[in-house]
Design goal:
Strand order of the largest sheet: 1-2-5-4-3-12
CATH class of one domain: Mainly Beta
Helix content: 25-40%
Strand content: 25-35%
Structural class: alpha+beta
Order of helices and strands: HHEEEEEEEEEEEE
CATH topology of one domain: Thrombin, subunit H
Largest sheet: 6 strands, antiparallel, barrel
Radius of gyration: 38 Å
């Protein structure tokens, strides 16, 4: 040790010994390397699983946001159409949001967020930017109930836009086609004809689209025809509707609103059910 310290005499021996012992050192380090490798593998796998879970959640969030964005764009587009109709209309129109649909299998109704506080009255027509969707049948303070066209108790006077032929359109219940009743077999009707409000009832303004004829079954022997129609309005696709403040007695002008005493609700002249 003194000679090695003073004269570096064992340097060569140390180098040869290190060379010869390297394989043995590697063998002895194998368990440590295996344990370290296993630990690194498990740590990496756990980290990757966490990252993958985070990415999956993020993708789900982005997908939800994209769907909400698309829904909002569609809703904004419909609101712009409603506002456009409101600006062009000769009478007052109030835009309302659909809150929910009561779970009643015997009727087709919706509840909207406008009521007596907004001067809504039973019997007023309800439309969207595509056409008539129903009629107000019950009014509460801050919401109202609207019977849709396919409600069994709904009836609306219409006329064919192509030739002016008049008739009455009836609802047949949930999932059933609308029916243009009391039409003669020889009536000038065609599949695809558009039915518009006639305005003779004084509830709905004339010229609003209501339905299109989908099927005609003519019985020449009994001289009548079964005419089945589909509604034009998209109440099952949109969230907003328009309440029509129309009164034929004022020539289509806005209905005067009395501020000192609420006006009595006019009778429901078309809706056949109990409000």
């Amino acid at each position: 040790m003194i000679l090695d310290y003073q004269f570096k005499a064992l340097g060569e021996v140390r180098s040869i010994a290190s060379y010869l012992l390297t394989p043995l050192q590697s063998v002895m380090l194998l368990p440590r390397s295996a344990l370290r490798g296993s630990y690194d593998y498990l740590t990496s796998k756990s980290s990757l699983e966490e990252q993958n879970e985070t990415l999956v959640k993020r993708v789900a969030e982005l997908t939800l946001l994209a769907n909400q964005s698309e829904s909002l764009m569609s809703e904004n587009a419909q609101l712009r159409r409603l506002i456009g109709i409101q600006e062009q209309s000769r009478f007052k129109i109030l835009i309302s949001q659909i809150l929910y649909s009561p779970s009643n299998p015997l009727s087709q109704r919706i509840v909207i967020d406008r009521g007596a506080s907004d001067n809504i009255k039973a019997g007023q027509g309800v439309s969207d930017h595509q056409g008539i969707v129903g009629q107000v049948v019950r009014v509460l303070e801050n919401k109202s109930e609207v019977a849709l066209l396919d409600d069994r108790d709904m009836v609306i006077p219409v006329q064919v836009s192509r030739n002016g032929l008049r008739g009455a359109l009836y609802g047949n219940g949930r999932g059933q086609a609308l029916e243009l009743r009391h039409m003669a077999a020889v009536s000038d009707l065609q599949v695809g004809d558009v039915l518009m409000t006639s305005g003779i009832d004084g509830v709905y303004p004339p010229g609003f689209p209501v339905a299109t004829i989908e099927k005609i079954d003519r019985n020449v022997d009994k001289n009548f025809a079964h005419v089945y129609c589909s509604p034009v309005g998209g109440v099952n696709r949109f969230r907003h509707v328009m309440i029509l403040f129309y009164d034929a007695g004022f020539g289509g002008k806005p209905i005067p609103q009395k501020s000192d005493k609420p006006a009595e609700s006019k009778s429901n002249r078309l809706y056949r059910g109990k409000p």
